[in-house]
Design brief:
The complex is a heterotetramer, with 2 copies of chain A (about 80 residues) and 2 copies of chain B (about 160 residues). Chain A is α+β, with helices and mostly antiparallel strands and about 80 residues long. Helices cover about 25% and strands about 30% of the residues of chain A. The chains are: A alpha+beta (about 80), B alpha+beta (about 160).
Chain lengths: ~80, ~160, ~160, ~80
């Protein structure tokens, strides 16, 4: 299965790019996606405690089951307004 | 659910915000109160000068979350209209980053809903700000300022 | 007394209110929050249709009392600017009878001061409204509607 | 001593005019002014329980001592905003 990952703000800066496409074997979770990205980026791996995750534009759990085509986003502490 | 139909308008984009236009979206002949909030870029933060801010959004999720917050407000209070816009990109001192307007028959509802919406927005909506001043650029994460990369030309 | 100089603007008059102009009066480079309230003429009251309102003020005392309320707010919260205007004369549905704008570094102050000022205004400022609808004209005294003379062309 | 009296809203309507000038012998109070006006207008006399009084644009007590040239205003329940 294939999922699109998106990174924002400090997570984007740490990973060095705003998005990526990951090939994963099912079953897979947002935590699996994150582990793949963090393995490529020590800077990103340090952010884990502060990140939330969203699947298809909704806040989700790190252990939710992903489906082919899902969009997974890593969300640092927000600071809008 | 209240008995009033609430008109809701939500936008996230790069164009400068026009508070009069945002307030005009909630005008209603049954309205006795229109309360607005404009978040504006301050020239200082935590005692240090600020040169400008850059806002970055997860656009579709930001809009979706703003719509949900507006619907929650409309379920809690009798509101006639809710309009909220958040700007992204680079903003100079004095520019408006977020604008809200809420219309209701009586002022209690629009005041309470205005406060609720800006608090929820700051808590839940996937938008981030990066502050630049004489000491460089910083991501704002709650009370924390976190040093950002010196140049960042890809706020997607 | 707080450590911030607060710019205060107060007006009572017959000209239509311009909320953007009122908000512009409180703009300040140190402001992170501008909260506004517009009181607008509703097409109904206590379940009955309203055709128009007439506002009458004891002009000099109204201005003086508004200034005092603004100063009380500025003493209680750190405010950068306060602007308040009240209109008198005949107002049609949807028109703005009162406009307030408050600027502060953080939103808590401007929200609290906005609420305080409109509550105090309604409680203390010598301004009266007379409502006209299909059943005639009524003075509004708190929750009470009191039948007014059929024609009143001398609201001084 | 002479004072100017001003009447607003329902009090103005009851008295039939928005102001008047009263000649009083000192000492005089806002209550004395009101009694003079109410003696000329039964409609105004009925409003007494709901009225406040101001002297020279400040809320005052009905028993305050007036001075020559003061402006005394009778204030029905306010309804601005």
């Amino acid at each position: 299965m294939q999922v699109r990952v998106r990174l924002f703000a400090r997570a984007r800066e740490a990973y060095g790019r705003p998005d990526d496409v990951l090939d994963l074997s099912a079953p897979a979770t947002p935590a699996d996606c994150y582990d793949l990205l963090a393995g490529r980026s020590p800077a990103l791996s340090r952010l884990r405690p502060s990140l939330l995750v969203a699947v298809n534009e909704e806040y989700a759990a790190w252990s939710d089951a992903l489906r082919d085509g899902d969009e997974v986003a890593f969300i640092p502490p927000v600071s809008g307004g | 659910m209240t008995g009033v139909e609430t008109r809701i308008y939500v936008a996230v984009g790069e164009q400068p915000l026009d508070m009069a236009g945002i307030a005009a979206r909630v005008a209603h002949p049954g309205a006795g109160s229109i309360a607005t909030f404009a978040g504006t870029v301050r020239d200082n933060h935590a005692g240090k000068p600020v040169a400008y801010l850059e806002y970055e959004a997860y656009g579709p999720m930001a809009s979706r979350t703003l719509s949900r917050i507006a619907e929650e407000a409309a379920t809690t209070w009798e509101l006639l209209g809710v309009a909220v816009e958040h700007r992204v990109g680079r903003l100079e001192i004095g520019e408006t980053s977020v604008g809200l307007a809420i219309a209701s028959a009586h002022r209690g509802e629009s005041f309470a809903a205005l406060r609720f919406m800006i608090d929820e927005l700051k808590d839940r909506v996937p938008i981030w700000k990066r502050e630049t001043g004489p000491d460089g650029s910083f991501w704002i994460e709650g009370p924390e300022l976190i040093k950002a990369a010196p140049a960042d030309n890809d706020p997607s």
